[in-house]
Design brief:
This protein has 490 residues and is α/β, with parallel strands linked by helices. It is 33% helix and 9% strand. The strands form three sheets. A seven-stranded parallel sheet has the order 4-6-11-10-7-8-9, sandwiched between helices. The protein has a two-stranded antiparallel ribbon with strand order 1-2. The chain has a two-stranded antiparallel sheet with strand order 3-5. Helix 11 packs parallel to helix 12. The radius of gyration is 24 Å and the shape is globular. The termini are far apart.
Length: 490
């Protein structure tokens, strides 16, 4: 590992002028160097023992990226990872996994807590790529700039919904988000391969990003997106309602990404929110039996956590999961036009059996063509109109809420159901999408169920218009926040 030049009065060997050394000086130098090496190794040993399971992603697993420079094989770009403190009090803020606290929801009579990070739209994304990565930036732009008129409230909103970027909550950075929050439910071998830019060509093709999958910028924004959904769920548990300007990566399984999704944020949240200390022993057993034959990595036998089973779980214990009774059941209400097959695959995995439930409305003839089994499946015909869609949703949602009795709802508000979406096959209008969003969020709020909203899919060549479309659900949430005066509820 390349060492940085010493600072202060000490200089690196390369900066010392050439001169003759006496035998005594050589002995002294040797002795000081030996003591320094022993001390440094001892400190490293105890650091790993205490903090291995709280290690942030800056130490990137399997020993391939820890504290060194790594070159992306596709783009030749380097990025540097550096260690940071593993103590929970340097990562969590009152239990929240956030790097910036937004406008205090208890004083915010304008809108609910929202989560956003500038890193969601990485630079230099291929202009003609099917996945419109800039849509996240344009969603934030719409919320910050377009006037939000609410006809249901006496006070006409003649300003944008959010008045300052500082009013958004921001998730933990890529370098500080603990890998413990990702795995389980994500299999550690797949996670390590993705984070180190070492996924196979087969995995990259199935994800859909191909050579972009190994870009450091994409790796970072993928983790940021999951971190954002995690924070959104925490804010929902704390204040009743929160939304994320990204998220909804519902095709990814625990061992591979698919359909423009890499790490399943909904499954990660379900696992974190229903976590019990006794789950960890079972996690190790399940991770020893991956579901995918391609998931084995040659470095698998040298996983850095294999010898740290007894390390403390402070970042898990201090993670905010609400107050009072623990979360036992999480319901995902997925209204993206594509079935959330990846999320459904977690039903029986990693202690999520009996904890994670899925209600899924989707176009029956659309991707994925081999459908998974959700708890409540509602396939819809091509060109489905507003009325049929909304009546199906109302019936299914009432049934799911009654039978599951969730303590948290994760709502995937995909706008690819819109009649003009280039990958959708339904015929839902703009007004129909807003009625859909109001139906889901209002039922949860009125029933006292915390609801966290993610944006899901949406595809349009006019990315600015697509951003405005994604902004609709946040505007609906803002209306419900004001109508119910949710800032008073806590």
């Amino acid at each position: 590992m390349r060492r940085k030049p010493s600072t202060g009065h000490h200089r690196s060997i390369s900066t010392v002028p050439h001169r003759r050394l006496s035998f005594a000086n050589v002995v002294i130098i040797f002795f000081v160097s030996f003591v320094g090496i022993v001390t440094n190794n001892t400190q490293k040993k105890y650091h790993l023992t205490e903090a291995a399971m709280t290690r942030p992603l800056s130490l990137l697993f399997a020993g391939r990226l820890r504290s060194r420079r790594r070159r992306s094989p596709q783009h030749g770009r380097c990025f540097t990872t550096s260690p940071s403190s593993s103590a929970a009090n340097t990562i969590l803020v009152d239990g929240l996994a956030t790097s910036h606290l937004g406008f205090d929801p208890l004083r915010n009579e304008r809108h609910h807590p929202m989560v956003y990070h500038d890193g969601y739209s990485p630079p230099d994304w291929p202009e003609k790529h099917t996945f419109p990565m800039d849509k996240f930036r344009f969603t934030a732009h719409s919320i910050l700039n377009d006037v939000d008129v609410d006809d249901d409230v006496d006070d006409d909103m003649t300003q944008p919904l959010v008045l300052s970027p500082h009013h958004f909550f921001r998730p933990l950075s890529f370098s500080t988000f603990p890998r413990r929050y990702l795995s389980p439910p994500i299999h550690p071998t797949f996670l390590a391969s993705f984070l180190s830019g070492a996924l196979s060509e087969r995995h990259c093709r199935r994800i859909g990003f191909r050579e972009q999958t190994r870009r450091p910028e994409l790796i970072e924004r993928t983790v940021l997106e999951v971190a954002g959904t995690v924070l959104t769920a925490q804010l929902a548990m704390k204040y009743g309602l929160a939304s994320h300007l990204a998220g909804g990566t519902h095709h990814a399984t625990n061992v591979e990404g698919r359909g423009f999704t890499i790490l399943n944020d909904l499954a990660v949240v379900a696992r974190l929110m229903t976590w019990r200390e006794e789950d960890d022993e079972k996690s190790r057993d399940e991770n020893d039996n991956p579901d995918d034959e391609d998931s084995h990595h040659p470095d698998d036998d040298d996983h850095p956590d294999d010898d740290n089973d007894n390390d403390n779980d402070i970042v898990m214990r201090e993670f905010y999961r609400g107050e009072g009774n623990p979360v036992e059941r999480v319901l995902v209400v997925d209204c993206d036009v594509h079935q959330g097959d990846g999320t459904a695959s977690f039903h029986e995995k990693h202690h999520l059996h009996g904890r994670l439930f899925t209600l899924d409305l989707h176009a029956a003839s659309n991707y994925p063509f081999a459908k998974a089994k959700c708890t409540y499946d509602r396939p819809l015909p091509d060109d489905c109109p507003d009325d049929l869609y909304l009546s199906t949703l109302d019936e299914a949602l009432n049934l799911a809420l009654e039978e599951v009795r969730p303590q948290l709802v994760l709502y995937n508000a995909g706008v690819d159901v819109h009649r003009s979406d280039k990958l959708g096959r339904l015929a839902i209008s703009r007004e129909g999408m807003m009625r859909r969003d109001r139906c889901v969020v209002s039922k949860c709020v009125e029933g006292g169920i915390p609801v966290a909203v993610v944006v899901g899919g949406g595809y349009d060549e006019d990315v600015r218009e697509l951003g405005r479309r994604h902004a609709l659900v946040h505007r609906v949430c803002g209306q419900i926040w004001r109508q119910n005066e949710l800032w008073r509820r806590r």
